Automatic annotation (TrEMBL):
Keyword line: Eye lens protein, Repeat
Protein name per the record: Beta-crystallin B3
A GO molecular-function descriptor: structural constituent of eye lens
Gene3D superfamilies: Crystallins (2.60.20.10)
One Pfam family of this chain: Crystall
UniProt key word Repeat: yes
Function: Crystallins are the dominant structural components of the vertebrate eye lens.
Record has Repeat as a keyword: yes
Species: Vombatus ursinus
Amino acid sequence: MMEQQSVPEQAAAGKSHGGLGGPFKVSVYELENFQGKKCDFSTECPNLTESLLEKVGSIQVESGPWLAFECCTFRGEQFVLEKGDYPRWDAWSNSHHSDSLLSLRPLHIVGRL
């Protein structure tokens, strides 16, 4: 009989999945329209500016969903990013106060069978 693992144990074992069976993956670009420096993530990042990016200009979610935050260390306004392209900050945010996105993490959705 297989032992069930919690979500953190699954992530540590490399078994976490986003969407319909693929691993979590997001690409973050420094400039709008997927230009400039690019960083790829498959796990959480509490501070995107420590990953060689000065800011976040656009995002491509290959598999997810992801939960993005306005501030570092998963604070501030939250944005749910589903699979797709986000060429400018206003594609992921309805906020008129801030155009920043400084941290993100995979959004683990646990369902009942």
